[in-house]
Amino acid sequence: xxxxxxxxxxxxxxxxxxxxxxxxxxxxxxxxxxxxxxxxxxxxxxxxxxxxxxxxxxxxxxxxxxxxxxxxxxxxxxxxxxxxxxxxxxxxxxxxxxxxxxxxxxxxxxxxxxxxxxxxxxxxxxxxxxxxxxxxxxxxxxxxxxxxxxxxxxxxxxxxxxxxxxxxxxxxxxxxxxxxxxxxxxxxxxxxxxxxxxxxxxxxxxxxxxxxxxxxxxxxxxxxxxxxxxxxxxxxxxxxxxxxxxxxxxxxxxxxxx
Length: 258
What we know:
Helix content is 47%, strand content 15%. The chain is built from 9 helices and 7 strands; from the N terminus they run αβαβαβαβαβαβααβα. Helix 3 links the parallel strand 2 and strand 3 (66-70). It is globular and about 50 Å long.
C-alpha cells in the first residue's frame, strides 16, 4: 500500500493555505475554486469589490472556504495583503497565492509544498514557460521590465517576477508595510523579501492563457507602467542605502552560522 501523502495532507502538515484574490473574473471563478478544492481544503478567496456576480458565486462555497470582501476595489496588491493577513491570523505558516483567471493550474500546488520542505521559510515563485503561448506584447514587456528592475534592486535574477503563483512565508510578509497596493505590490514584495535575506526559489509551473476575447485584465499599460517606474526609481535609491547593505549583512550572518 502506498504511503505517499496527498497534496492536501502535505498542506495540512506544513500549515499552508491557498489565497485567491479576484476581481471581475466571475466567468472563471467556479472552475478555479473547484480545481483548488480537489487538491486542498484550506482556501481563502478575497473579492476585491467585483461589480459582476462574483459575490453570488462565492456564496455557494461559504461552507467550504473563507471569503473576504472589499466593498470597493482596492487593487490586487491590497487584496493580497488582506488575504495574507487573514491567513496569518488563522494560524497558517505559509500561503500559496493564485490568480483567479484560470491561468494557474491547481495540479501544480504540490510543487510548492515539495519546495518549501527543502527550503523552509523561503519565498517560492512559480516560473511560467511562455514558449508557444499566445501572450500580448505588453505582458511580455512587463515581465522583462520587472525582471530587469528586480535584478537592479537585489543583484539577483529570477525567471518570472510577474507571476502571481507564489508561496509566501507568512511570518515574514503578513505584517509587511508596503508603498504600493496594486500590480506593483508583487514586485515590491519580492524586492523587500530579498532585502530581508529571505531565500527566493523558483519552481516551473504550467500556464494557460484563454483566447484573447475571453481574457479579463485590469492592467492599464500607460497608467500602471508610470506608477511602476516611479516605484522603481525610489527603490533604486533605497537599494543603495539600505537594500544592498542589508542583503550583505544577512549573507554574512548565514555564512557565520554555517
